[in-house]
Fold this sequence. Notes:
Blueprint: H1 13-16, H2 31-44, E1 52-56, E2 64-67, H3 69-77, E3 81-89, E4 92-100, E5 108-110, E6 112-116, H4 124-133, H5 140-153, H6 159-165, H7 187-192
Parallel strand pairs: 1-6
Antiparallel strand pairs: 1-2, 3-4, 4-5
Helix pairs in contact: 2-3
Amino acid sequence: MEIAAPSTNTKSWRDALPIHPAAELVPMMSPDELRALGEDIKKNGLRDSTAIVVFKEEKHFRPVLLDGRNRLAAMEAVGIAIRAESVRGGGGPQVKLWYRVTDEHFWLPIKIVEVRGDHLGGNPREYVHSANILRRHLTAEGKREATAKLIKANPEKSNRQIAEQVKRKCPPKKRRKKASSRISTTKHAISWV
């Protein structure tokens, strides 16, 4: 049974959903990893109940992609068609996404969860961190890179606060330094991973 197929005025997901800068805290998967994920999605469908997360600063702001860019890129990498449609609703501008594996398949909706900046838990950087930095597929290098970006993005936080956020122990000799006094390398992040 086909579910709410996209209208004829659809566009690429990249046109409908600009990527939020906080999404850059987590590195993209390698091309091989993207293809492997895409093949799994092609075979098994989207298994994650929260496939895509969009962020809106407030109700009437345009949504931007906060989480799910690897999933969407993986689907594109293996030829899965993705369609996006911008719509207006009672909650302000919204985006609807669909995918289909081949022309013989029905268009299936991609579940989208909205995180709002004017609601509790609506800090985009904290969302990206809690949803991604501790995920299993990140290598130690990927975790270091993400932690270093988190440090740069939050210069007001102390090493201890950052360590608590990334669920790592802060090196004892660095506990009293503030993030603003850190140098802009991953040296400090390396010792936490």
